[in-house]
Amino acid sequence: MTTPTRAPALRCLVVDDQPDTQDQLGRMLRAHPYVGRVSTASDATGALRVLRDGDVDAAFIEAQLPGMDGMELAWILRRMRSVPALVFVTRCPRRAAEAFDVGAVDYLGKPPQPDRLAESLRRVMTVHRTAEPPASTGPGAPGPGAAGSGLPAASGLPPASGLPAGSAVPVQPDDADEVIPIELGGTTKLVRRSSVRWARAWGDYVRLHGADGTHLIRARLAALADCWRGAGFVRVHRSYLVQLRFVTELRMAEPGQLTVVVDGHPLPVSRRMAPNLRSQLASRRRSRAVPSGSGSS
Predict the structure, then answer these.
(1) pLDDT in tens, 229-242
(2) Nearest to 192, CA basis, from 239, 237, 243, 149
(3) Residue 166 in 3-state DSSP?
(4) Which of 71, 168, 197, 220 could form a disulfide with 180 if both were Cys (CB 3.0 to 4.6 A apart)?
(5) Would you say the C-alpha torsion 40, 46, 52, 55 has a positive or negative sign?
(6) Half-sphere exposure at residue 99, Cβ-oriented, CA atoms within 13 angstroms
């Protein structure tokens, strides 16, 4: 007599900034026979820390998280070697279409109902059973990632650079206009550094703002500031890096709070970094005012 094989217990992650919802959903999942382990996080950064310690089979994510929101987190999770099934849990129904664009298997309202949660887990189990491991060979095969990160490995900079997987890596020798490979949904888009207006730190990630929209890369803002200093980028705040040639004005938003306007966006300038920004802008104005090769007669 053949003993039926029991489906492996699911490893679940709940990401929600509301403690009551996080606790309620965690208890409901732990009580379900499909579920073996439940981890929790209150924001995207905490979720990524959990994922460094091990893979999960399903991520239940609030769409409107503070800082990096749930949709942005979902796009990062889709780049992992072991992609978890995504279920969004939120009171905001207008995000439903966006959730399915990112490949979610289900979308739950708040508070989550037991019957709907059971249906979500059934869908997760279907995906989990049919998922196949990625091929290890071929032109599209992922290489070894950063330890525990689940993200593809960087291809050009040494580990000491501070730019790990998915970061801005030159793919051509012309340093005058570095090309940044942006991997998303199985495709790679090449973005020129010259198109980047400003960048904002998101924990271990940086969001680049450019002429063709925004792009999220895995990098440290401090490392980008060092690498891109020669291309006209200046750190103006612990979370912001700007391209000087796109700066249109400096403003005093309130006593002691300076902002810099880049491509129409006012960005904060820290007191510590304000003197360097003013000096860089003054040097740029002088260099543009004096034509190259001019001299007194």
Answers:
(1) 888 999 999 999 99
(2) 243
(3) coil
(4) 168
(5) positive
(6) 25
